[in-house]
Amino acid sequence: MAQQSALEYLSHGQTPFFRLPWVPMARPLPSGTRAVLLGVPFDGGTTYQPGARLAPYHVRRVSALVQGWHPVHRIPVFERAPAVDGGNVVFPPFHPERMRERLEAEVAAVAAAGAAPFVVGGDHSVALPCLRALARAHGPLAVVHVDAHLDTSGPEAWGEPFHHGTPLRHALEEGLVAPGQLHQVGLRGPWGGPGDGDPGAVHGARLHPADELQARGAAAVAREVREAAGDRPVYLTFDVDAVDPAFAPGTGTPVPGGLTSAEALRLVRGLAGVRLVGMDLVEVCPALDHADITSHLAAHLLFEGLALVALRGGGLSARCYSS
Amino acid sequence: MAQQSALEYLSHGQTPFFRLPWVPMARPLPSGTRAVLLGVPFDGGTTYQPGARLAPYHVRRVSALVQGWHPVHRIPVFERAPAVDGGNVVFPPFHPERMRERLEAEVAAVAAAGAAPFVVGGDHSVALPCLRALARAHGPLAVVHVDAHLDTSGPEAWGEPFHHGTPLRHALEEGLVAPGQLHQVGLRGPWGGPGDGDPGAVHGARLHPADELQARGAAAVAREVREAAGDRPVYLTFDVDAVDPAFAPGTGTPVPGGLTSAEALRLVRGLAGVRLVGMDLVEVCPALDHADITSHLAAHLLFEGLALVALRGGGLSARCYSS
Amino acid sequence: MAQQSALEYLSHGQTPFFRLPWVPMARPLPSGTRAVLLGVPFDGGTTYQPGARLAPYHVRRVSALVQGWHPVHRIPVFERAPAVDGGNVVFPPFHPERMRERLEAEVAAVAAAGAAPFVVGGDHSVALPCLRALARAHGPLAVVHVDAHLDTSGPEAWGEPFHHGTPLRHALEEGLVAPGQLHQVGLRGPWGGPGDGDPGAVHGARLHPADELQARGAAAVAREVREAAGDRPVYLTFDVDAVDPAFAPGTGTPVPGGLTSAEALRLVRGLAGVRLVGMDLVEVCPALDHADITSHLAAHLLFEGLALVALRGGGLSARCYSS
Amino acid sequence: MAQQSALEYLSHGQTPFFRLPWVPMARPLPSGTRAVLLGVPFDGGTTYQPGARLAPYHVRRVSALVQGWHPVHRIPVFERAPAVDGGNVVFPPFHPERMRERLEAEVAAVAAAGAAPFVVGGDHSVALPCLRALARAHGPLAVVHVDAHLDTSGPEAWGEPFHHGTPLRHALEEGLVAPGQLHQVGLRGPWGGPGDGDPGAVHGARLHPADELQARGAAAVAREVREAAGDRPVYLTFDVDAVDPAFAPGTGTPVPGGLTSAEALRLVRGLAGVRLVGMDLVEVCPALDHADITSHLAAHLLFEGLALVALRGGGLSARCYSS
Amino acid sequence: MAQQSALEYLSHGQTPFFRLPWVPMARPLPSGTRAVLLGVPFDGGTTYQPGARLAPYHVRRVSALVQGWHPVHRIPVFERAPAVDGGNVVFPPFHPERMRERLEAEVAAVAAAGAAPFVVGGDHSVALPCLRALARAHGPLAVVHVDAHLDTSGPEAWGEPFHHGTPLRHALEEGLVAPGQLHQVGLRGPWGGPGDGDPGAVHGARLHPADELQARGAAAVAREVREAAGDRPVYLTFDVDAVDPAFAPGTGTPVPGGLTSAEALRLVRGLAGVRLVGMDLVEVCPALDHADITSHLAAHLLFEGLALVALRGGGLSARCYSS
Amino acid sequence: MAQQSALEYLSHGQTPFFRLPWVPMARPLPSGTRAVLLGVPFDGGTTYQPGARLAPYHVRRVSALVQGWHPVHRIPVFERAPAVDGGNVVFPPFHPERMRERLEAEVAAVAAAGAAPFVVGGDHSVALPCLRALARAHGPLAVVHVDAHLDTSGPEAWGEPFHHGTPLRHALEEGLVAPGQLHQVGLRGPWGGPGDGDPGAVHGARLHPADELQARGAAAVAREVREAAGDRPVYLTFDVDAVDPAFAPGTGTPVPGGLTSAEALRLVRGLAGVRLVGMDLVEVCPALDHADITSHLAAHLLFEGLALVALRGGGLSARCYSS
Hints:
The structure is a homohexamer of 323-residue chains.
Chain A: H1 6-12, E1 35-39, H2 55-63, E2 69-70, E3 75-76, H3 77-80, E4 83-88, H4 96-112, E5 116-120, H5 127-138, E6 141-146, H6 167-173, E7 177-185, H7 198-202, E8 206-208, H8 210-216, H9 218-229, E9 233-239, H10 261-269, E10 275-282, H11 293-311
Parallel strand pairs in A: 1-4, 1-5, 5-10, 6-7, 6-9, 7-8, 9-10
Antiparallel strand pairs in A: 2-3
């Protein structure tokens, strides 16, 4: 389950995530598998500009450039955390409820096999079935939610309870999140009204707006989240629009004033030590991207997430970089 | 209901179709209105690349460049056929059945007011409610279907009976099309199987593949369609992917080998004399467009359709151009 | 004068700024109007890449995504400061002098009605008539000039006294700026010669180059400006090229090394408390933009400016975000 | 005055038109010079999307790919018609009247030296000073006007008599065109009113709309124009928007339904035998182009024009291609 | 070796050509395989804009939209001609000679297995090793060379005998082409000198310039080529720059005036009946493409080539389309 | 050797770097020349996305916007350090060894003339011949290497010792770098293995990863480098991918998490006082750029490098900006 070499990869012509083995419908998984990457080509929950269904193809293609040694953590990520490309989870693009069923089942199966799912959306509505499956497998989760938006909307605005602005509301209401363990990072921009933050506030969500992260640094915010999460199972749901449109133009509901790519990567890296049980990376919209820069960033964010899994297999070693 | 002058238009800052009066939720319509342009920002029926929901904004914006005198037909289109921008037909983007209900009701209302609806999609699934409303208002229709695809798919491939590849099948099965009066123009590219053409063939559809149009000329095909339609009420459903991706890159399921923009315009112009009761222009996907060229083409195709309505108010005059 | 809801907005199909009521040639303004957004489709003062005349259409379109509650200031912006879309100020694009006359008259009328004009350019030459009208209405102004360039050029280089690199020179020379109250933020890049800064220096302009802002933080610079301005009437002229081309590629004379979008937004937000009597947002060039990111940023910057007006209607409340 | 070889050209790093010698402000021209290419970076006459001022840089850059042997005419173009890059004609971009004066003077000087000017705009308003200078030098001209528009507007719409939609009206009214010798090719799209064609009609202009050209073929139209022109001095004014936006997306007022690039090239090639005394190629707008395809087309159209000059130096030889 | 269904394909997440089985380094091939698609990510022979090495990834991705039934030939292409995706042929991108060796060996192996190689470049220098292997396997070939350029250059201009402008020269000189059996279609644009056509002329190459094809029609040219080829083994080498840049902007040395996509597809389709022993499709440069339109066209051209193989397995049935 | 004025520049139509005199194959150089800009259109060392060979044309074109007075250093750069555009260094694009020979010779000649070469790549493999020539001229160098990558790869991965990921390895092994004087700034992203840093470590290279620069500030890192370099001859090799893809999308191997443009400019500016003997700016890939923003950044980085040369001609004066 190591990465292919560059020439091996090139010879195959296919584009599995990170040049990893491709194990579609992966059951049983190769023994020792600790992470399974799954594409979810679904954008039926989008309120503004759709297109995220195409993201898995583009993130896969550019992820080939990501090598396996993490020079800050000083670990060979894919040796510590053997991973596979599990293919896509599919269903007709018109039936969100079937997407939720299928994805929840797939994620549950991955968790049952002792591995962490890494879900590449698709729009943010794919997060709910992941949260459901993992909370059932691991108990209520600490959720790290990186996003420009709160995503705790109700059905009022669009007459639909499950669109891409709602997954965190459901997660809170369904008890998938451990009390006080919703950590929302990257929020910014105007709200619809003063009550937008209420769903989270009621459940004790901790807000770390983009402004705060920019003022205190991504590492400080990450440390606070990490310490708050303790040894709980952690789910990381990363909406690429948390990052500024300059770094991630390929997304459907861009909000200026966001994180830099360096801050975003440092944020995930700074979670080192948490018990990550799954991650999603959502809202990459290739039709709006330029020179694949959003897809490249998505691949690197996923790699940082995979490194978190790899780190839990052993001790945290000293960093080789000076910071 | 004349067009605003350039400076009037500029001063408004808004972008109604063709610089026409904006009459949202237009009931009752200004007396004498013969055409109502409606945007339908819906792409929930898309199988591949979504984004057509944004088309009404961009087609509106660029349609300001289209002036009102038709130099081939030698008529002032908007004087002969007073028209308004009726705004958009809306509904939550997640509920296709509500789109169909709302759009059918709006189109029925326009028809009841004696005007022709010009629907700017949105994906091709918006055609079915238009056909339903107009067939109820006018009786079975002659349908001119310009498209790279047959759009007579059944629910097999995607487990969904109403996606954007199905409207013509429903129209045929629901008896909305007069016998032998489905005219399909622009078809090309591989099929899923030999039976793809059966739904149309059973109902006597006449195929005019892109190859045929290119060989015989758009005018000849148009003439044949016009003569076959006679004085029946005609509905024109124009999928912009009938045109080659070079001329219409902004579309979700492009097929090379299509019509040129000149052929497409000549095709619609060549229908002069038919009794047009409505038109849709669908599948413009702005996120995939370049320099708005697909939106410009869409605006001109709509103008040619409006001219068909205008022509029926009076006799057909000689052309001023040499062809 | 509240914003339309999302579905109301969608149904209209038109794109007024921020989903606000559209009151073209707005006289008399609705009672209670405190801000009027005006598009100025003029780029006849451009020295390098033109195209800013198209900005009003694109900024309008994307501004629909901006909601009305400001979560840092904790105010409903459009309830505190009722605003309308006043349409465009127009004139033939070839006659700068007529643009200046018309725009000055419109801005004067808005000011006379007790409202603040928010002018969406167009190139930076539109600032001068705004400054003239507002200085006449309110007396000499404190001017916050955010820009990569000094814009105090004389007629030497281009043989033209009123191009887009000159408005601040005229404003100083015409006494429109209160002594010592020109605050120039974001400056960077090479100059033509050591004397480029003289026009400002003579009048006591305070320079806050991009370097300084990046070192001290946007909030610190804003605070200094705010305190220096005191209770004087403040005019904010924001050239989007103050922001780095990564965040604002859609501009005609880009200079690398600029502000981030977060810094730019924080800068305007940090002016909370000043008596803002008008603002312009200029030099957005859509033809050079990608995925509308420059237009999105422009809309958010305007929203921060509108919030400044809203804040003066009542006390400044505590911030809900942690910074 | 031959072209540099590829490696010579590469080593220079500069980008003169067609790898020709660069002779700025070329007076006196090298003996034997028969054509002078001049860039005119002016777009101050544009009514919609500006940007054509940047065209000379991009057309120069890509023209390096054009070699010198014309395989249809079977002549070495630059040996038969020695040519130079005369640099740009400049003036402040704000003063159309100075542009007209300077350009007229430059063109007159080129003509006085016995060479033909090839002017690379810039917008179409650059044509008038060229026509003035050449009509003075050679007497009333046969004008071949290739364009999607009539360009005979008066000052009504924009309050300006010299914008880019007016040069042919002035040419006719000033007697620069020989009676019956305005040949307008490529026209299409709606007009403002039935009288739009009157200015030309009064002067006996011959219209060859795009429709006609597509029906009869470019060669037939070219032959008719050539025969009508006889041995009169011919000026070719080529607005790239005559070509369809698919082939020439980089232009400010695109009109679908235009010529293909093959038709455009064949049209110019088909003029072989006329006495060409000058040419302009206008309205290339690089900011709207993609992959330089509009600039590449412009370079090839200019080459076909240069070949017309070259052909008059000797007899027309047989074609090597089969058509 | 049938295509996967849409949902099967989606679930895999990988992108084999045409949803075919992926059989990398395919030896031994599945019994009955009649065509093997090979990617060749090499652009080290490019003289102007490189980037074709990325083409195999993008052509694979978009080829999933191509279905298997050919409605003109009325055959199920992949049932008649079972095909596989053989992965890429690889080698370090710096060593053209190793590319030539490896590719020649792979193609020879495919031919030895009784299948036809379909090579997706890569620049045009990949054609030579294919020709070498196939001429050794089948004897001297009839070569159909579709291209804007002659590709018979010698080493003079670039000091290199094997760049992408030379493969046909080598093929002729090495006797890989049967006498009089080089058919060059699509040629246009200026030459370096009158002798450019000599290498082909000496060997009896038949030129069908773009002009001729446009005048006579692609079907007529195809028929002539087909009849001339008779029952000889035919190799089709298709440089996508034969097609006009409007239809194929994603290519490194674009030449305006080229084929339409419809003409290009009709040309290949019109070869029905020839004994096709291999094909390459080269010079697709994704970095210069827009909305994947060049890659879509490439996929359809390959499909038409595969259909030629399929047709030889049985009789030619009547066409279902009218032309 | 001063810059041309804007109008002079415009009139020439050519695009020498920074509007400087163009002195191709500049031998002997104008007396007093202290810097020579050389384009190197070579990308034959690229492992992923090629295209950097086109950079010199685009960087030249946009560098015209850069004026000559440096307002931080308070010097007229081109008066203090007279500079010329030396054209391109050329060779067939297929022969890296000839590129290395020719470029080494040119750089040696520039150095022999007492000037500093400023080389605009091309890919990073152009750095080695520069380092060779300058180390021979000046002795072992202090090398400031700004890059996302280590560029000390060996021949293993690609079977080629001189590709664009190897120049620093050769420089170290050939003794071109003074002991302990390789300063690598901007590094980030995963490595192939723990030994990737070994080649540098063995030679005492000092790593300043992007993370460190972001934490400490570019000025602090620059100061450290400057002090370490002391009065040694310094070579600055700047790979534009050191900067984040948001600021520099036009590059072939992008890595998210990089420097901002402001940090990059401040880094070079902060080297004020070093004895710069040459610089290269590499890996700008125009086909992947948007709105020329990468080229604009490259031009400004070069200008900061030229200012370093200018500063050594006299004392460092106080800065005029506040930071």
